[in-house]
Backbone:
């Protein structure tokens, strides 16, 4: 299949990912997100993803009611210091390793959506543990966002993924999914993303100034109007946003569309105020007010 006319993602895609919160619902009724990431080098990434999925500093972000973050024990305090609203589960060492599988699989079984791989590093033991966990969660039908280093772990898996999974590579990470030169034309990129989605049986979101998203059948695009989001941690926040939408809507492809559009909309708005001088945490701060503009429920 050759894609010639991909459609553009818009506000209605965000609205569809925002179900009404029932008046008497509890925090666990509104979606539980599990964040797995971090290593002795990368401690900021799982924090940013968690805050996009839950409420921190008194403000709801995308609206998931409950979040738990699993990180190596040496960076637990770094996560806790950001906000008392995040439940942190320490893992056994300075990096994710095979001894952590029992803890991770237990938490994965209880979660509605899992965001996995941010800042875990490329140690073989970490990647093999994550691959085993992804396979386990996929068999359970869990909604998952697989990002960053976890994308490299897929080479240790024999089985395909499923439509409850979104892979969120940048251009370099996409080369791990699609062998060979992708090309630079829009048509080549669309075809490559479509082919990768079909190969893995999952949704693909290729991050960039023009974000390209495929479910293996269609191609959707999100066009940013600035380069404001080309900053460290921005993609980590996007993964958390998508995980939060997944926990709420139980729709992986729809969550990818909504997350990418919300992310780009915030980036463009911040650029008008701050130019190219934003931080990933600035994106998080703008989630509630921006979502209010898209919500059908006020």
Residues:
């Amino acid at each position: 299949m050759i894609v010639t006319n991909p459609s553009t993602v818009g506000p209605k895609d965000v609205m569809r990912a925002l179900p009404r919160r029932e008046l008497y619902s509890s925090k666990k009724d509104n979606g539980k997100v599990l964040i797995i990431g971090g290593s002795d080098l990368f401690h900021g990434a799982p924090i940013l993803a968690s805050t996009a999925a839950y409420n921190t500093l008194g403000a709801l972000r995308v609206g998931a009611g409950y979040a738990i973050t699993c990180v190596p024990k040496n960076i637990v305090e770094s996560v806790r210091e950001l906000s008392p609203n995040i439940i942190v589960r320490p893992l056994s060492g300075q990096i994710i390793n095979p001894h952590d599988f029992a803890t991770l699989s237990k938490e994965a079984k209880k979660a509605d959506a899992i965001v996995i791989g941010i800042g875990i590093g490329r140690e073989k033991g970490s990647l093999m543990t994550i691959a085993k966990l992804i396979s386990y969660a996929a068999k359970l039908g869990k909604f998952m966002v697989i990002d960053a280093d976890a994308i490299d772990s897929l080479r240790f898996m024999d089985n395909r993924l499923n439509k409850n999974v979104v892979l969120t590579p940048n251009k370099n990470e996409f080369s791990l999914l699609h062998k060979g030169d992708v090309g630079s034309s829009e048509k080549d990129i669309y075809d490559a993303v479509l082919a990768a989605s079909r190969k893995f049986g999952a949704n693909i979101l290729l991050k960039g100034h023009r974000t390209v998203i495929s479910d293996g059948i269609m191609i959707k695009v999100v066009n940013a109007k600035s380069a404001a989001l080309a900053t460290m941690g921005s993609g980590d926040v996007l993964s958390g946003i998508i995980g939060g939408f997944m926990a709420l809507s139980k729709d992986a492809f729809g969550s990818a569309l909504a997350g990418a559009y919300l992310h780009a909309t915030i980036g463009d708005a911040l650029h008008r105020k701050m130019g190219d001088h934003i931080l990933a945490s600035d994106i998080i701060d703008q989630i509630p007010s921006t979502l209010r503009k898209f919500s059908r429920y006020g």
Remarks:
- The CA atoms of residues 228 and 277 lie 7 Å apart.
- The chain has one domain: 7-294.
